Amino acid sequence: DNKSDTPKFLYRQFFLTPSATFPHQHNLEGQIGIVTGSNSGLGFEASRQLLSLRISRLILAVRDLPKGEEARRKLAHAAPWAIIDVWQLDLSSYASVQAFARRCDALPKLDFAILNAGILKVEMQVNESTGHEEVLQVNYLSTALLAIVLLPILAKSSRVSKAGKLAIVGSETAEWAKFRERTSKPILAAFNEPRSFDLQDRYYTSKLLEEFFVSSLCQTVSRYKVVVNIANPGFCYGSGLHAEVTGALGLVFGIYKRMIGRSIAIGARTLVNAAVIQGEQSHGRYLSNCAMAPLALMIEEKSKEAGGTTLWSETMAEFSFADAERIVEWMRA
Question: Whole-model pTM above 0.90?
Answer without folding.
Answer: yes
